[in-house]
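## Example record

The block below lists the input lines for one assembly entry, exactly as stored, with component labels intact.
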Amino acid sequence: DAKTTQPPSMDCAEGRAANLPCNHSTISGNEYVYWYRQIHSQGPQYIIHGLKNNETNEMASLIITEDRKSSTLILPHATLRDTAVYYCIVASGSARQLTFGSGTQLTVLP
Amino acid sequence: GAVVSQHPSRVICKSGTSVKIECRSLDFQATTMFWYRQFPKQSLMLMATSNEGSKATYEQGVEKDKFLINHASLTLSTLTVTSAHPEDSSFYICSARKTSGRSEQFFGPGTRLTVL
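Predicted structure tokens for the full assembly:
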């Protein structure tokens, strides 16, 4: 599976959009970009995933660059409850396991 | 849908005892479940892949005789930490992947194990 690079931490003001970047320059053609988040002392929560098109669901939007070497997770209106570690993971659709990196600690400030 | 539960959520035990942790997929069937371990201020580390009806696949460095995994049905996997020691104290998290359809994994809430 391709390796990902994320900033270790980010702050965001409550009510503003949170844009979390992820670099995955070695991504292969059959690999998806998955985003999970982990609130302190809880299990990871699935957010969104995509292959090459931008995706949106009730939680977030995923923007993938045309060359697929990077992506951005967008939380449109961050709340205090969005404070968590966000993990960007690249894996094939048939991958039997996910490899977690160190993620980005997002802190939403009041 | 796609809810995964774990029981217990927290357990404290004495050194040398065994502890069993259950992982259930509540509203879907999961041929494959995964067990992770997370130490404080660290990321999740995959311990083993649990396959329904067959033996689990362990990651390098994980003792299969210490961490017993049983996946007896499409909705239940158990992890037994045998002869637990203080260094086994950790946050144990399971995940499940649907038998068909979507490829993402769904995680349980985790079990905090403290070995005294």
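The interface with chain A takes residues 2, 4, 6, 32, 34, 36, 43-46, 49, 91, 93, 95, 97, 103-110, 112 of chain B (CB under 8 Å). DSSP finds no helices and eleven strands in chain B.
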